[in-house]
């Protein structure tokens, strides 16, 4: 079975929490009111894991286009977007980005661990397939789920992004799985691109951080009892 990462297995932390933590890393303490205003501006400018930016400045266009193919472009795109928001906090753009790179900046959905454990115990191999510009293996290790994932097909490592069938085929190859007997679970039309690789696809709506997103429903499709 294949799973998307963001919006399917985990969600980025609340924007206000994100901004408060990054500001603290820069030596600044923000009250909730100021943090809320700043978070709104930063999310509008473009946050990894958030909605698409309202506008990508021309000088960031190439990095934006390549953000899921190269780690340096991913960082440059999102720190560059954050830097378009004026603040008096030196280093804030990098601190905001660095929250992404560690598990503290993410919340696995409540359904994630039970679902992955049930699949693991049933002998169903699992790969995480993600359009992403950094390594998420440490996140699963910190969450105690590293042993529940058999492979990672990450776009910046493979040079392919969803919905390209190649990334799904590569993930199936990592598992030794027949695409026609493999289910891809995600939250966007790009995840449904797995159908072009011969897989079945299930698209679930992303939920807010910390709330169940219905991931457990995949167990019946995999022939597993919860």
Automatic annotation (TrEMBL):
Keyword Nucleotide-binding attached: no
Superkingdom classification of source: Bacteria
Signal peptide: none
InterPro entries in alphabetical order: HAD-like_sf, HAD-SF_hydro_IA, HAD_sf
One Pfam family, short name: Hydrolase
Hydrolase in keyword set: yes
Alphabetized GO MF terms: hydrolase activity
Keywords of the record: Hydrolase
Gene3D superfamilies listed in its UniProt record: HAD superfamily/HAD-like
UniProt xrefs under PANTHER family: HALOACID DEHALOGENASE-LIKE HYDROLASE (HAD) SUPERFAMILY PROTEIN (PTHR46649:SF4), PTHR46649
Protein name per its UniProtKB record: Hydrolase
Naturally occurring in which organism (per UniProt): Paractinoplanes deccanensis
């Amino acid at each position: 079975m294949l799973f998307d990462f963001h919006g399917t297995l985990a969600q980025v932390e609340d924007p206000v929490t994100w901004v408060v933590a990054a500001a603290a890393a820069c030596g600044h303490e923000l009250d909730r009111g100021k943090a809320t205003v700043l978070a709104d501006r930063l999310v509008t400018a473009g946050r990894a894991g958030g909605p698409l930016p309202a506008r990508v400045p021309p000088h960031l266009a190439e990095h934006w286009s390549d953000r899921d193919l190269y780690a340096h472009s991913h960082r440059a795109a999102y720190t560059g977007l954050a830097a378009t928001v004026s603040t008096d906090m030196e280093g804030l753009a990098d601190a905001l980005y660095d929250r992404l790179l560690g598990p503290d900046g993410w919340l696995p959905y409540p359904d994630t661990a039970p679902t992955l454990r049930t699949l693991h115990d049933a002998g169903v191999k699992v790969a995480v397939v993600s359009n992403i510009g950094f390594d998420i293996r440490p996140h699963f290790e910190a969450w105690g789920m590293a042993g529940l994932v058999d492979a990672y097909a990450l776009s910046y490592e493979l040079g392919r992004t969803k919905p390209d069938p190649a990334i799904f085929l590569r993930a199936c190859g990592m598992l030794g799985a027949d695409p026609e007997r493999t289910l891809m679970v995600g939250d966007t039309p790009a995840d449904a691109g797995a159908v072009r690789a011969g897989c079945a696809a299930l698209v679930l709506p992303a939920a807010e951080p910390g709330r169940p997103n219905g991931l457990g429903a995949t167990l019946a499709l995999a022939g597993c009892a919860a």
